[in-house]
Amino acid sequence: MSPVRQIINPFDQSVLTEIEDQTREQAIQAIAKARNAFDHGDWPHASPEHRAAVLNRVADLLERDKEDIARTETLDTGKTLVESRIDVDDVVAVFRYYGNLAGLLHPKVVQGTPPDVVSRIDYEPVGVCGLIAPWNYPLLQISWKIAPALLAGNTLVGKPSEITPLTTIKLFELLQEAGLPDGVANLVLGTGPEVGAPLSEHPDVDLVSFTGSLATGQRIMASAAKTVKKVALELGGKNPNIVFADADIDTAVDYALTAAFFHAGQVCSSGTRLIVHTDIYDDFVDEVARRADLIKLGNGFDEDTESGPLVSAEHRAKVEGYIEIAQQEGATLKAGGRRPDEPELQNGFFFRPTVYADCHKDMKLVQDETFGPIITAERFTTEDEATFLGNNTDYGLAGGVWSQDLEKAQRVAKKLRHGTVWINEFGPYLPQAEWGGFKRSGVGRELGTAGLHEYTEPKHVYQNLKPAAQNWFARKDSQ
Ligand code: NAD
């Protein structure tokens, strides 16, 4: 008997539904179905245009069911309905973006070949892909993988987080409704060690693409090495948000709040590491803290709610652990640092937006990904120091630079070792622009054309039009 898992609404701990966790054997069966569909099915050989049409149908169905999906995401994650609607819109945009890229999969003629040779590159699917997603953007993160994997002609096994599986279950129903052949997209539900691990271990999986924590990513990379799978990893971040004294201060304060507190800080690219020029540091941090105290926490379905709860009791306990660490390390608490007082929030996993001043680079609070609503504020004096601090992390996912001197901002952006840098902005991504991490934030890229080519095997086909003996090994007799 598989254990039954309760799916909990983080706003009030009500049970949304119960789902049977699948077993390792069931995950292996799903891999076998995907293998069979790849080796014997039509999907890998269908034209890219046919596959693109399916993706566009998925986008249509997501638009049709947008409200229902967004509500489900809010129930499952606690994020506001406005955020969930944005997520669905973004997912539609990603399916449409890849639904428009069939042309990139056509063979490419190689130029500059020797005489009497034709040579081309075919873009073939990699094979069976294991796609593993985290709980913070459940529908969005798995879609960044599914859309390009399908366009390229792969078959797949998808595994959502066991904490927030509901919109992924819905997405797999829509894939079916859009006309995807049986066995091409297979869903497994359950824990990482039980149904996730086979996706990085099993010899019948050709590629594993994972979004989640650094520790799990390291485990997946190590186990994928045994069968030399292709590995794509989107891991954590500790993302600097650098504010120069010549920035538009009101706008920078406003974005400092959304950078760090959007979705209660449970965002891989959240700008929780605030790095502010010393001339404006005190006033800037005071204003961020003052406004953090005004943030309205609540039910994601209420229109005036600005931020929802954390995803689970365990996750809140982890975030609260950093409050103790902050005290030990001597950071100065300027806002939050506690659970809210409102009686109506007591059943949810809420934590107040938190701001710490007097932070420095060597603090654990500054270096660790807390994945919660905690800003650490550091000071800098020179441009070089700002760049140094911005790069002073094992991660390299994203960062922001605020200045009205655009040459300076571009200089700093160029030096930052992060996969995305925003200038006078923080947060947006585009389906057509590559997303991913330098350093320990990951391997490979999602989105953009690189996000498609993660799922292709370029094959060089070289044809000699006038074959003739080379006589390199010219001896034909035995003495
Ligand atoms: P997690 O690593 O705990 O889990 C992610 C997924 O991996 C889940 O589905 C989990 O069940 C599965 N898993 C766990 N152990 C496994 C194993 N041994 N083998 C295979 N699968 C296993 O991460 P999380 O807590 O769900 O997500 C938060 C993390 O995700 C943060 O570190 C965040 O920065 C990161 N993240 C990164 C990006 C990005 O684009 N770089 C985006 C979103 C989240």
Shape: globular
**In terms of per-residue confidence, which ranges show pLDDT below 50 for 5 or more consecutive residues?**
none
Task: Describe the largest sheet.
Answer: 7 strands, mixed
Main sheet strand line-up: 12-13-14-11-10-15-16
Helix content: 25-40%
**N-to-C terminal Cα separation, in Å?**
73 Å
Work out the oligomeric state of the chains in this entry. Answer: single chain
Radius of gyration: 25 Å
* Ligand identities: nicotinamide-adenine-dinucleotide
Total number of helices: 15
User: What structural class do the secondary elements suggest?
Assistant: alpha/beta
Mean pLDDT: 98
Q: Which range does the strand content fall in?
A: 15-25%
User: How many β strands by DSSP?
Assistant: 18
Give me a quick take on this structure.
The chain has helices at about 25-40, 50-65, 65-75, 80-100, 140-150, 165-175, 190-200, 215-225, 250-260, 280-295, 315-330, 365, 385-390, 405-415, 450-455; strands at about 5-10, 15-20, 110, 115-125, 130, 155-160, 185, 205-210, 230-235, 240-245, 275, 330-335, 355, 375-380, 400, 420-425, 440-445, 455-465. With about 475 residues, the chain is of the alpha/beta class. A hairpin with a 7-residue loop joins β3 and β4.
Q: Topology, pairings included?
A:
Layout: E1 4-8, E2 15-20, H1 24-40, H2 48-64, H3 66-77, H4 81-98, E3 108-109, E4 117-125, E5 128-132, H5 138-151, E6 155-159, H6 166-177, E7 185-187, H7 192-201, E8 207-211, H8 214-225, E9 230-234, E10 240-243, H9 249-261, E11 273-277, H10 281-293, H11 313-329, E12 332-335, E13 354-357, H12 364-367, E14 374-380, H13 383-391, E15 398-402, H14 406-415, E16 420-423, E17 442-443, H15 448-453, E18 456-464
Helix pairs in contact: 1-7, 2-4, 2-6, 3-4, 4-5, 9-10
The structure holds nicotinamide-adenine-dinucleotide.
The site of nicotinamide-adenine-dinucleotide has 33 residues, from α7 and α8.
